[in-house]
Every structure is written in C-alpha cells, then in structure tokens.
Fold:
Amino acid sequence: MGERVGIEVSLAASEAIKMANVDVVAAYPITPQTHIVEHLSQLVADGELDAEFIPVESEHSAMSVCCGSSAVGARTFTCTSSQGLALMNEIVFIAASLRLPIVMLLANRSLSGPLSIWNDHSDVMSIRDCGWIQVFAENGQEVFDHVLFAFRVAEDAKVSLPVIVNIDGFVLTHMIEPLEFWDEDTVKKYLPDFKPVNQLHPDKPITMGAFGMPIIFTEAKKAQDEALIKSKTEILKAWKELGDLVGRYYQPVETNHLEGADTVFLTMGSIGETVSLAVNELRSRGKAVGQVKLRLWRPFPFEELREAVKGVKRIIVIDRAISFGGPGGPVASEIRAALYKERTMPAITNFICGLAGRDVTPDDYIKMYEKTEKMTKKKVREEDYIIYGVRE
Amino acid sequence: MEPLNVYASRLITKKEYFTPGHRACQGCAEALAVRLVAKALGKNVVVASATGCMEIVSSPLPFTNWEVPWIHVAFENAAAVASGAEAGTKALIRKGKLTDKGTVFLGMGGDGATSDIGLQALSGAFERGHNFLYVCYDNEAYMNTGIQRSSATPFGAATTTSPAGKLTSGQITWKKNMPEIAVAHNIPYVATACSSYPFDLIKKVEKAARIQGPAYVHILSICPTGWRLPPDKAIWIGRLAVETGVFPLYEVEHGKYRLTLDVGELRPVKEYLKPQGRFRHLTDELVEDIQKRVREEYNKLKIKTTL
Amino acid sequence: MIKSEEELTWKDLEVGCVVSDAGNARQYKTGDWRSLRPICDKTKCIKCGVCYIFCPDMAIRKTDEGYFEADLYYCKGCGICAQECITSCITMVEEEE
Structure:
C-alpha cells in the first residue's frame, strides 16, 4: 500500500509521471494545466525526475517534439488544454497515424471564443476522430492511476497508440484531494520498460511518415482503425491488472444505482460525482433513477454501453460541449448512434450544461430529471438538445 | 578563385544513403544537394524532414529512398521533430538505455518549411540549444505545390503567387536573409552552400555535424522547373549565383564571418538573371535595382568578414 | 517488396505505415522518363568523376576500367553531366523508339 496524502491533483499527476520515469516532457504552459508543467520542471531541476524537460515555444512544437522523441524510443509525455490542443491539432492526428505511444494529460478547458479558461469538454470533443485512445478521470485518485495506466497501454506492443487522459480543468487540476500514491515496486510490476515497436536508430534504418497515394491510403486508415478497436483488449487487461495490484477496478462503462432504474443519467468526467449526489437524493425520494458513467471514450465501448442501459426507458445525457447547428451534444449524438439498432431504443434527452465552468449543482440535475418526467407524461416530440440554464 | 581539383570527385564516398530511383525532376539540384549532404553525414544520422519536394519524391508509401533513419511528420515542424529526437536520445543515453554513438540529428526542409511556416519551430530549437543540424534546401519558392512564392523568393522573380503582371513585376520584397536570422540566434555555426560547389558543401556539412549545439546550413538548390531553365543548367546557374554575389558562400563560426570562396570581382548580375525564365519580364531598370542591392548586401557581408 | 501497390492489403502494411525495407525505392525505373541519353567519347574522357559527382540521380557509375558511364536504369537524361564535363566528352542524343 502506498502513501495516502492530501494533494493538489496537478501535483499528484506530476508525481505519477515522475514514478513512470518518463524520458521526455515537452509542454507549453496554458491555464489550467500550468501546475502540472511547473511541478514537473521543479522535479527535473531537483534531479528527482531524470528527464529532458523541453520548454517548447508552442503547443504545435510540443506535440512535434513528442513525435520525435517517441520515435527514437523515449517514454514521452505532454499536457495541454483548449487552445493548446487546437494549435497542435494536425500533429495530434499524425501522432496516432504514426502509432507513437505518447501520453497526454488534457486539462479540459473550453475552446475559444469568447476566450475562457474554465472547464468544459469542448477541447476533447474537437479531436474525437484523431485516433488516440481516450479515457476520462473523475477524481484525483483516478488521475494518478490513469497516468500509469496510460503509459502501460500506450507502450504495449500490441497497442502502440497514443493515449489521452482527460482531467477536468480547475475542477480537478486545482483541487486538493485525498489519494493514495503507489509504491515503487507496484509501479515496477505494472509498468515495464518501454520497448518501441518502431524506433529510429542508425543500426536499423526505417522510414516513418511516408506519404500515401490514393491507391494505399484507405488501407492505411483501415489498419489504424483496427488498431484502435483491438486496443480494447489490452485496455481491459491493463485495468484488471491495475485493480489486482491496487484494489481499484476500472471499467469502460461504470454504473451507479442501476437496479430497477427506468431513467439513467449518462456522464463523463468529474461531473459524475456531482450527478451521483443527485441520483442518491432522487432514489431517496423513491425515483427509479440510476447513473451510467462513460470512462472509455475511444475506442467507444459499444457492448458495455448497450448492456448497461438494457431495459432503461430514458437516458439523460449530460454534454459539456455544443455542436453548433448539429443534432445534439457530441456525447448524446454518439449514444443515439450506438443504440440506434437496438430492438428497443430508450428516449434520450440531451442537456448541455456546465459550459466554461458554469456551476451545475445536484439540485440542477434534479431539476433536469423533473423536466424529463414532465416530458414523459406529455409525450411530446422532444428537442434534440437543451442548453440548460441559459438566460433567455 | 580556388583551382578545382577535378579528381576530387573520386575521393568522395561511393555509398549513396539517398538512393537512386527518387522522383525528383530531371536536373534537380536540390536532389543533388540532398545526395551530397547524405554523403557528408553517412549512416550515423537520424533525419527529420519537413513536407516538401524532397520528402515527396523520396517517400511514396510503401517505398523509400532513404537508407538512414528518417521521419516526416508535417510541414512546419522539422526542427521540432529533430529537437525531440535529439532530446529523447540524450535522455536514453543518460539513463543507460542507449549507447552514445555520436548520432547526428538532422532537420531538413525547404525554404518554405524553414523561413516561413517553420520559422517558429526553428527559432525555438536554436534558442533551446539542441545539438542538431538544420539544413535548408532553398529553391526559392514553394515548388512542390506548384511554384508559389516564399519569403526566400528573390526580388523580381515570377512565381504563381507573385506573377509578372500589368501592375506588379514578380516578387515585390527582397529575399529574407535566413542565414542572418540563424546568426542572430547566436548559434555556433551557420553556413551557406550550393550544390554547384560540392566539396565546399560537403566540408561545411561535415563541420556542422561535428559542432556541439545548433548548426545551420543554407543550401541554394537550383530548380530548373521552377526557375524556368533547361534541365542541364542547374549547376551552371548555381555557379553564376555565387560569382555574381547573389548568393555568396560563407560561414559564421561563433559569430566570426568568413567567405569560403572569394570570387574576386563580382560578375554583373544580369548574367545570372538573363538565362532564367522567372526573370524574363524584368526591365533594365529593375535589373539595375537588383544589381545595386546585390552589391550593397555583398559589401555588408565583406565588412562583416573583417570584424 | 513482392506485392505491387495495387495488391497490398491493410494487413500487409507495417505498424504506423513504417517502411523498414530501407532504400526499396531503388526498384523504381526512372530511366523510363528519359528522352535524351548521355553518350561518352572515351577517347576524351579523363576519368575525373565530375559527371559522377554532379548527377542528381546517382545514375553515373564507375566501370572496372575507371570510366564513368550512365546507369540507364535511373538516368533521367537531364544533361547535367554533358554540361559539366571538363573535356566535353559527353553528348546528349535522342533516345531511340
């Protein structure tokens, strides 16, 4: 059993990265990720972490430096938010196509404009199709665990894909939470040394990043798609091993109060904890409400989701990003698509809330539930999405 | 003028790390420059290439012309990728996971990738002091996408985005002085070279590779296709570029300037401009303006060599 | 590379579309591009190697006797060798066919 401490989640994340013994950190500061990079540079400056800390001149270069360093076989880490992610966008896609096992902590923050430093999921939603493995952490412990999980899965020779761990900006990054560190032996057991599938080295010259003509491009993308889909096997294995070592078992889809529920909330990230308070309250009032939490975003956990919502009559999907002029928030759209061919498709209500850090309380979620109760009674054709709490 | 030892070619290593069968145009002096750099660096190198002519002609999946480790990521980040490869290797060596073989890290890109879209990444890499070599293959336009202007396009040159028209006559700005920008970063070694002077080029690249810290070599790479020249004239026009003072060959070691080829009395610039289709529209007045400015720049450079 | 590009399946591609067969583009016959070919008058050739050093396509090779001749598999017929030859012993002639 490791050390149990109360610590700011950003610092805990940095400590996890230190325990993972990364070789290269290349990152550009952006609120609210700054505490992570600051602490990492201190650890390097103090000799506590033996790594090259590259203070790049932009996020685009951060991801580019990561590509170079991962390509030579170095364990590589970066972190960013919002505009930084947008700036490195093209390289994010390329990193996945090159199958470079880079690990990124994304301190979720709203995409401009207007400029906002506060938390929502619009940044991660802008890279849905990038080809990285994407998971969500709900609290400080999960953040710590998932840093180690991320390196473990990314660098697995059967996977060799970059991994994003989403952690809500400010809400997680700047909170002091109680959590348990791992001890060195446990880390050693869980995370082997990085042995790259492909490595740039003069002894064995290879070409990475050749260009693809129409005759071969489709095959390249199919190969990439298959790799992401198949990575689920190793993801599940890595979570099982993690649980066996430290007693916390993670799943692609986690549930709460599902017994006899005819309505469930579906959440991703830290709001899951807030919603669970609402669910507990509603249950105490006799409502058949439950909660489904999506932890694995890519590869999308189709089977686990369909299993979790079997028999449910309504899903209240909480989105923290808008798709302007589109069919709903990104998560709701994907849930609808995932359930489209099921024999019975539940009603899906999409609330978009918590944009750019606007507080959403358990009371708000209870109000959302009551609104859906009314809708079920009225049997009206529902809106595709509702921006909750907007002043009109 | 240095006497050319005509037999020196036979002393160059025969091994080609950039293999034949590449898809560059006939007579491409940029491909020749890449070939010479590859000979200078040998096999103990990791290359990070930007998108551009040389990347496209040498890496059509599933084929490659490279017999050294080579990576292409995107257009504007060759310097950043090279920085990452260098830093990653440094960390791995220090942590005992790799043996130190003195591998050279090469970032390469065209003039667009270097002085325009990639300038930021290059500046960052220079400032951070990575131990790497950056080579700019300057064919004076975005050739791979169809001869559009770059900041390295010389004044008056016609390109598809700086055409000779009724109101304007080709490129309206003077060529960005990329070697000077490199010097301004206080890096230990900066040099200019041209594939028309192969031994000078090879010597500079070998020297740059041995330097600890960032090194920059700017190679004028004649493009017969884009400059509107017959395919056999690339080497010939490169010599004229140097002999007219348009592209002097020099190196700057720790801030100390030295001409590596003193061409003596400069030939008139119109001898260089006239054979090129891209300058065909120039009036005598414009040619005179160019002559004045070339002489000015050359004199500025000569003064620096005396400091 | 046994399969041609048209035959490659997604399973044939290496991880990350890496090409580990270094230099396999050697098989591409750029000599087909040619409309002129270099002819060397050996009586004038001084075996200096200038043509060899200036060929952008590495298409000049040294024979056993020390002469430098065009590798017609790759030679694109650009004419740089003829232009640069010290003794002007190389001429470009039309390709037959």
